[in-house]
Amino acid sequence: MRSIRLENITKSFHGETIIENLSLTIPAGQFFALLGPSGSGKTTLLRLIGGFEQPDAGSVYLGEENITDIPINERRINTVFQQYALFPHMDVFENIAYGLRIRNVANDVVEHKVIKVLKAVHLEKQIYKPIDQLSGGQQQRVALARAIINEPEVLLLDEPLAALDLKLRERMLIELIDLQSDLKTTFVYVTHDQFEALTVADHMAIMDDDGNVEQIGTPKEIYEFPSSSFVARFVGTTNIFKGKLTSVGKTAQFEIEGLGTCEVAVPESKRWICDGCFALMSLRPEKIEIRKSVMEGFSNKWLGIVEAIVYHGRSTQYNVRLKNDRIVHVFEQNEEHFEREPIDYDDQVYLYWQKENVVLLER
Question: What is the DSSP letter of 80?
């Protein structure tokens, strides 16, 4: 297994720069996700790795080998596209065998390898079925099988689940995790869907609208400790507040116009924090306790009025208007929702949270 390294990559289309001077390393054997909004350059990056596009500047490495000018068919990299591009006139077996056939691999080897890979994607019973008789999920697995049969060092996946319904997509995510774990192949997964990225990735890179990498880390690191307001807003839902920091030590007071102060924890990594500087803070909706009565044991408390209630099945979302007219989003698991006094529209409620649940972002 070899890592993928992009060095100082720049790419433009029709005079518009999509990616500029980007460097990124994807460790060998990882399930790595590229997550960002539409137009952020995720697919362009994938196509550069796969050889479908050439960079205007910079280099692509597979391990220590510079593969920038190596043709697609000579790279040990395969791609699964959003549109699976299966051959409709071939059955499952021949679709998967196609890559081996064009390399003139012996028939007995082809049969052995196809059966092996069909077992890996749980399609042994569909071996001779026409493609048009398969479900969307089965077609997706055929595309995966065709991509992995040549044993690539890297498998690129460009939003491969976008055409599937929610329940099937959730099931296929688990199958992808299991498949990557079995194959030990480096998977690079492009998506704009944060749920998919958080579910499958060992590590992930968040790309912004300008094609820059905002943050790289594990899903937990990125969700719990976003490095910027862009990441905090893009990955999950959050409440962002602007305020001034005072009494800075291991904790600080965060003064918000119209709301007064709240207490926040100050991590050692935030070396820029100082008395009197302005900053942004992120507070995730699920970190907030919502109650109609007074509670003890919390660092912070706000009072507000419930303006909207949205039932999500597993959770309930409350939109609460504070005294400065800011709307705060609160998520509550429904097992808690049914254990305490019900909350309704126009109720006055208290919002509680601990100082450790606040993430201080950039100035």
Answer: E
